[in-house]
Amino acid sequence: MPASPDTPWLPRAFALVAAITLARVLWLSLNTPDLYADEAQYWAWAQDLRLGYVTKPPLIAWLIAGTTALCGPGEGCIRLSSPLLHAGTALLLGATAARLFGTRAALWTAGVYATLPAVSVSSAIVSTDAALLAAWAAALLALVRLREGGGLAWWAVLGVAIGTGFLAKYAMVGFLGGLALTLILDREARTTLLRGPGPLIAVALMLAVLGPNLVWNLWNGFATVRHVGENANLRGGPSFNTGQGLEFLGAQFGVFGPVTFAMLLWVLSRRATWTNPATRMLALFAAPMGAIMIAQSFASRANANWAAPVYVTGTLLVVGWAIAEGRMVLLRAAVALHVGAALIVFAGPAIAEAAGVSLPRKADPWMRQRGWAALGAAVSRVAAEHPGHRVLFEQRRDMATLLYYIRPHPLDALMWEADGIARNEFELTAALTPNVTGPFLFVTRRDTAPDVFGRFATVQQAGRIIVPTHRDAALRYTVWRLDGFRGYRD
């Protein structure tokens, strides 16, 4: 077991993580790219706080409502919770490392996690992952303390953390899976954990935290749960897309870092990892979920960030092994690569622009976040020429982003929803219905939309907008004035 956790690792770790976080917050305040569609959608949800949404649990909207109430509606404030949550996760993992591997590992764990490529990028956007990983780290620390004989307070922390994780993202079910495997395969864990009122307290608090969202799902036909299943894209059966699976696997070298991911694969392959109770427990929270994500990527598809929870325990495993085996050069190399990659991602585009170099779209790490403010300003000018017209969209991404960038915000905008199946929050709460006849300003990426135009009495082009974003790319939209909606079908 490690040296006493009272050894002062925390001040040094706090200073390191605080410096990194301060740099990220300053970047958000001084050099923020435009919101991309998911971020803008979460902002829109924050204007109408609920207990659940069609595609995600509600915590992300609550966080945005809190940060924007604190410092305003700008992009930096919308994203502010992300670097703060990742800072908390780094320190929670440091505390866990101190218990499992010693105080030297605590400082390195906090530093390695804080500089991971995925954490650097995630700290610059607002997403559900930041809150999920913070809750995962808190639950893991509570579990480690409980295995050491911690009291009922740690059971309360475990229950609240798991419930909060589910409010962030339903991927928190992976933590329950790791916990179940630990109890099944680890007799000592069963003996220590499955006694007394603690487990019941944890379950009760988890349900108390998650309960309102469960009620919302029940009231709305389990909309979010259905969406999670649909997002896995297995309805049509497995496709066994080898290229897509290899792409996902390769992306993990970028998400976790090339050195750290290679180290993690090595650690998970070692017999010693699975015979030591502490590292076996960590491995059970990493390997099964990682294997499931890889299988999903080959069978259908998986986004690179879906494996993010693996790297909470993955960081602990990598640092613990490197320190125990005296492989500090690997940790130093990993952190150096992470910092170098962050400098390229965050400073590279600005340096290129200052040097007069126009990046192609695929070379721009922020390619999804270019041009939306300019597009919103252009649509705003068209809207100003047509007072009394409600804005109508046909794509979720366009509606989300332009709700934010059109000024004043057209929060009464509507979504074209012809098939009656709500696949996102806008189609559930803002679908165009036959009792609303117009007039509308229809914003579309298409040059013409005969399937839409045929349902209106009056159709007139109001504007054509082209916003260059890169030397080889632009946003191209057409705005149409529509009136006399006759319903989706005769």
What is the percent of helical residues? 55-70%
So what's the oligomer here? single chain
Number of strands: 5
The structure class reads alpha/beta
> Describe the biggest sheet?
5 strands, mixed
Q: How many separate domains make up the residues?
A: 2
**Distance, first to last CA:** 74 Å
What's the mean pLDDT score? 91
Low-confidence region ranges: 1-6
**Rg calculated over all Cα atoms:** 24 Å
Q: Could you tell me the strand content as a percent range?
A: 5-15%
What is the chain-wise order of helices and strands? HHHHHHHHHHHHHHHHHHHHHEHEHEHEE
DSSP helix count?
Answer: 24
Strand order of the largest sheet: 2-1-3-5-4
Globular, elongated, flat, extended or rod-shaped: what is the shape?
globular
If you had to describe this structure to a student in words, what would you say it looks like?
- With 490 residues, the chain is an alpha/beta fold.
- The chain folds into 2 domains: 338 residues, no CATH class; 115 residues.
- The chain is built from 24 helices and 5 strands.
- The N terminus is likely disordered.
